[in-house]
Every structure is written in C-alpha cells, then in structure tokens.
Amino acid sequence: MSAATALPKPSSTVPLLAAMRKALNGVLRGKADVIENVLVCLLSRGHLLLEDRPGLGKTTLAKALAQTVGGRFTRVQCTPDLLPSDITGFNIFNQKSHEFEFRPGPVFAEVLLADEINRATPRAQSALLEAMAERQVTVDAERYPLSPEFFVIATQNPIDQHGTYPLPEAQLDRFAMKLTVGYPEAADEIDMLRAAVEVGDDPPAVPQVFDAGQLRALQQEVAGLRVDESLHRYLVELGAATRKHAQVTLGVSPRGLLQWQRAAQAKALLSGRDFVTPDDIQEIAVPVLSVRLGVDQDDPVPVIRQILSSVPIPEYRL
Questions:
Q1: Listed residue (82, 87, 144) closest to 119, CA to CA
Q2: pLDDT tens per residue, range 50-77
Q3: Do 269 and 225 meet the contact criterion of CB atoms below 8 Å apart?
Q4: What domains does the chain contain, in order, with CATH numbers?
Q5: Do strands 136-139 and 89-94 pair parallel, antiparallel, or not at all (unpaired)?
Q6: How far apart are CA 128 and CA 125, in angstroms?
Q7: 193 class by beta-carbon count within 10 Å (0-12 exposed, 13-18 middle, 19+ buried)
C-alpha cells in the first residue's frame, strides 16, 4: 500500500473522525445524530436514502461531505425524462479522430446526490442502482469502473407523490440506510440566520479532512473489526424475527444482514472501538431496517422496536 493510501494509525483515526463531525455539524446545525448515521453509512461503504421535506439541508450536507473527503461532487435532478445514459455516460463520435469517445456521466464521482429519485423512470433508477451495487457501469459492452469511494445520497419527497415511480423493495435493499433530517430546533435556526448575515453570499468553507485514499483505508479497517460469534447468531435471530413478525410483509434479506453487520462495525469505529457490541447493532437498527422491511403501517419504528425487544441480547464478554 502506498504512503498516500496508508491506513491511518489508531491514534490518528479519532481526530480525523472528530474533524469530520465538526465540519458536517457546522453546515447542518443541531443534527448530530443524523451526521453520526451518515458517517456510519459512509464508513460501511453503503449508500444513503434521505426521505424528507425540501429545504432541510440535504444538498448542503452532500456537498460538504464531498469536500471533507476530498472527492468530486455531482448532482442529478431525477425527472421523468432522465435517461440511463444521463447517469452512466455515453459514447459520442469524434469527427476529427473518426472514433467514438466515452463521455462519463455523473456517477463518475466520489459523492453523487440523486435528487428526488422516485421521479425518475424505472429504467433510469435501475441504471443508478446497478452502478451503486457493482461500482461500475457498462456502456456499449464496455465496462468502466467507478471510484472505490463512490457514495450515493438519494432523496425523495414524502409529501408529494404525484407523478412518481416508487422504488420497489428489491431496489430499496440496495441502500444501507434511510434517514430523515427533520426541522431544526429554534436555537439552531437562529444560529443559521445569524451565520447567513455574517458570511453574506459566500457559503462557509468546509475543510478537507481526508487525504487521498484515507477514506477507503478506513472503510477497509471497518470491514475487519471484530464481531463475536454470539453477535453473528444475534443478527441471524433478529433477521428471523423480522420474517416472522405479523406486521412485516417482507423481512430482512441475507444481504440486509450483511449490511447491518457492516454498519454496526462502522458504529464501533466511530465509538473508538475495534470490536462490535450488541448496543452497536441495536443503535443502527432503525435506519438500517427502515429502508428494507415491508411493514403494513406508515411508521416502521414501533415494529422495529418490537422486533429488537423480542430477541434476547446475548451475554457478551469483552
């Protein structure tokens, strides 16, 4: 591994993550719990679905995230006329060289914001979701790899469903988490208004926290964090409980369990540990399961809480 991509020493991981938290909390005020789950999703190498009302800072968060990891930021406004090639890229004929040249689409970035993904047609959605799953695109039988740090933040508006194409369960399962941002507290909105007067039209600068390759190195470190055998069984029992619950029409898949475990590993790293505990699994259960459980009621959280309480927590010794 080169010096540029060397894995940060354990002593340097904590200040790196603290700096990232500080930077993101500076642009999304009063939402430390949301920021923490965004970092869990990023470090677990998943993708994020944000379901919330317009104007709550989703685009600002995505841009700031790209700046902190030192990556490229791109944005796609999903509309019914969006074509798969508008996402993946396309070949164009160069009249000077008499050859076709590939013009990369917005997926060739580190952070992609797919705004109002449920307004894109199923074909366009499938093109994006394939890129998310495979981290590559195929155009005219030619494969093009994406950045190993490729991270998608997709948004959808829950209050206006006219003219939308809801994501089916199999595609929702491609996301690691679903989060809502919610309205800030009054004090945080006052701070936001005050800051806007102080900086004027120029948005506050967001520092780059990670050097080239450091994010990927941290993601690899997350994947290797210790998970006790008792926690493997605990996750499997929780998964079985989702499939047996009377109000669940679609339980968590094996892929979902893998993502849940990886998210718990990321939660452990953010807590300064190199091992997973039952608390890590429980604390990220709601965002992980909300995106993949089929529940016959609007709010899945009470059902998820019931599932967690139905499975005994294993005896865990450090």
A1: 82
A2: 988 878 888 889 999 999 999 999 999 9
A3: yes
A4: 8-198 (3.40.50.300), 224-310 (1.10.8.80)
A5: unpaired
A6: 5
A7: exposed
